[in-house]
Amino acid sequence: KNVRGCDYKWIWESKIPLKIQIFLWQLFQDAILTRDVMSRRKWAGNSTCSFCSERETSQHLFFTCPVARIMWRTVGCVLDEEKFYTFGLAAMCWAMWNCHNKATFESK
Ligand SMILES: [Zn+2]
Predict the structure, then answer these.
(1) Residue 42: which region, alpha, beta or left (left: phi > 0; alpha: psi -120 to 50)?
(2) Residues 75 and 96: beta-carbon distance below 8 Å
(3) Cα of 104 to ligand 1 centre, how many Å?
(4) DSSP line for 25-58
(5) How far is the centre of ligand 1, averaged over its atoms, from the C-alpha of 55 (Å)?
(6) In this model, does residue 21 exceed pLDDT 50?
(7) Domain extents for the chain?
(8) What is the 26 CA–ligand 1 centroid distance (Å)?
(9) 1 C-alpha vs ligand 1 centroid, how far in Å?
(10) Which of helix, strand or coil describes residue 98?
(11) Which of 24, 44, 54, 90 has the fewest CB atoms in 10 Å of its CB?
């Protein structure tokens, strides 16, 4: 199956590392392992967001979570040109995803 044949051509055309391209693609397919997805797959942990008290769907984690909103507002000021926007979006989502993984899998 050729994943590059999908509708998200802009992801593959952008100048970002391949692993981040794959991650972004999964994000837009709603195929990443958020707590919501994992709990539906009988994961034992709770499905509450790592940063607030809402249910952690991918939509929530990257866009509607208060923490995500603050981060978007911060970078939104700098990212007014479209080419920077794609890169910034990728970098932001990737950073939040790593942060999420830390909070989810390296519980203290
Ligand atoms: Zn949240």
Answers:
(1) left
(2) no
(3) 13
(4) HHHHTT-S--HHHHHHTT-SS--B-SSSSSB--H
(5) 7
(6) yes
(7) 17-105
(8) 19
(9) 34
(10) helix
(11) 44
Tokens of 29: 């397919």
Percent residues over pLDDT 70 in the chain: 82
Query: Which protein residues have a CB closer than 5 Å to ligand 1 (ion)?
Result: 49, 51-52, 65
State mean pLDDT over 54-60.
93
Q: 86-91, long-range: CB within 8 Å, 24+ apart, which pairs?
A: 86/10, 86/14, 86/16, 87/14, 87/15, 87/16, 89/24, 90/14, 90/16, 90/20, 90/21, 90/24, 91/16, 91/20
18 C-alpha to ligand 1 centroid (Å): 27
What tokens appear for 17 in the block? 């590392």
Q: Ligand 1 centroid to 4 CA: how many Å?
A: 31
For residue 64, the CA-to-ligand 1 centroid distance in Å is 7
